[in-house]
User: What shape does this take?
Amino acid sequence: MTATMRPSPSGCPACAAAPAAEQLAERAPAPQAQIALSLPTIHCSACITKIEKALNAHPGVKSARVNLTLKRASIEAAPEVTAPELKALVESLGYEAHELDPGTLSATATDRAGRELLMRLAVAGFAMMNVMLLSISVWSGAEGPTRDLFHWISAAIALPAIAFSGQPFFRNAAAALKNRQLNMDVPITLAIVLAVVTSLWETSLSGKHAYFDAAIALTFFLLAGRYLDHRTRAIARSAAEELTALEVPRAWRVTDAGEEQVSVSDLAAGELIRVRPGGRMPVDGEIVEGTSEIDRSLLTGETVPVFAGQGQAVSAGEVNLTGPLTVRATAVGADTSLHRMADLVAVAESGRSRYTSLADKAAKLYAPGVHLLSAVAFAGWYLYTWDLRTALNIAAAVLIITCPCALGLAVPAVTTAASGRLFRRGMLIKHETALERLAQVDTVVFDKTGTLTAGTPELTNLDDLPRGDAEVALALAEGSSHPLAQAVARAARDAGIAPAPVRAVTEVPGYGTKGTLDGREVRLGRASWVGADGTAQTATWLACGDRPPRALTFTDRLRDGAEEAVQALQDAGKSVYLMSGDSTPAVEALARRLGIAHWMAEALPADKAARVQAMAEDGRRVLMVGDGLNDTAALAAAHVSISPASALDAARVASDIVLLGGDLSPIAAACRTARAATRRIRENFRIATVYNIVAVPLAVAGLATPLIAALAMSASSITVSLNALRLR
Assistant: This one.
């Protein structure tokens, strides 16, 4: 006889659920890595297809999608897949790629303000179309109860739509009045409110005219201008945040248990940090172990790497080149050298903040003038007719017909068109007044390393080397990650040279590489290490056995478009200066090569900022182009500034315009576009002025019916928008 065993109920629900949870955990998908890459050079659907196909074929990649508008790849992959290997894969296809921090991007992905404006614009547009349809019947001659019915239906549609859609203007106007100031939103709000109140009064008295259509049309067109302005800035902000995400803030902290990767914000003074070859110093500190060479070009402008050994101080932002280093942190976060120039930058930016835009100048003149004109019209008609209703109607008509609808579109329509044109050429406008200031530039100041030059050396005397020595140099250079060694390898490979059969190639961090060939020791590296007398010129030395060492000399490679940009700016009548923290021979040689008559070498950050400020005091409008920490204060002090996408984050933040690609030639074109944009803005202001000269007498004379007001507003807004589109 067998007994049937019944499952006994568990007294703990969690225990009962445990087996099911384990089964779910077994079936749950493994965690995936979210990787984002910036792809600034893609331009068509063929680029997308090629990159997506290669990424999706890579082992471990679950999915890869490329967004052409954002020029960005979003990748889901297995945890063992790393961003550097995918970056290398994309670069092997011939495209530029940069790693992005997905956390930084996801934190700024939403655009609530833009969605809110777009929603209010859609509501205003829908309501405007319906009210205009009703108004056609009134304009066609509807009389009596029919006209009143259409007016009340128009009120029922327009009032809630205006109350919802006009909130951006109402809030700004209330804030300005609270501070006892006037801005462009004050006459806008007054015109809308007075139009609605007058229309309700007229409708309740069975009057012939109501301004519901004009009020909602005014709200729609002004919201269109506000949305255009917002989109221009949002695109700039989004791209600027993407550029910020290029610097992924991670570091390797050394503990008793080994090394662990942590956020830079978690580091503290006194801790040990391991900096691998190719890594950037995350803190200020002192080397306690290892030898290498340090690239300080972004901080000081020096192109030649300096030796780094035990006991030497290093600064955040410097790049470790050849050997692993252990650094004891002495300053982290806001206390590092990357932040020491904050006071200089703040002082420099105060001068730029005093710039008054064309729109602000127009608002200061326009707002009080419109209010005064409406008040005079009201008083004059009331004294002439002693009819409050007539006087109020005419005052409302004056406010509506003179309301700055065209002025509200004048600047954003142009800046949107101009910013789009420059973005397609690889330039990102970050600041709303940057175009106006760029149009005024008469002096251009360039940094050297990383700006006019690519910051990468170029071998100059390969043809002077015997073939055998070039083959040995290539074999040794391929065993090093030093910039000079990489330049040797690149030049030799391009010349069709094959490496010599050098054996036991090893790198001695901080000194160079060595190996053996036919029983002889061969070396490539520092002059003192190979037994040579160093020269002031940038060079590495090749020693083959007992033969005298040979110098391999270098020059800093020009950035693409550097010569064209300098020549075009000079042809346009602008003075061009070169200011650098690099050595005098290097700066002088580059200035002579580019035909720049005015140059300054070995300049400290404060020297650059002081020189730019002195130029401004002499009445010059300076455009500063730079990329390093030593340029940050000068970028902020300049009338307008540009930095490459490869610049330090601090330099990009201080600049008004970011050069997305590696080519400098668009700078001169940007100056021409800026002048054209400023001309369009001034033309739009003149169009608005002419419109007011024609329309205001009609309104003051009492001839501006709601139909005339609505048509006049629409005509001026469309004219301004079409004029702006000429920039495209």
About this structure: Confidence is low (pLDDT under 50) at residues 1-30, 106-110, 242-248, 341-353. Residues 298 and 628 are 4 Å apart (CA to CA). The chain is about 50% helix and 20% strand. Residues 455-557 form a domain with the Calcium-transporting ATPase, cytoplasmic domain N fold (CATH 3.40.1110.10).
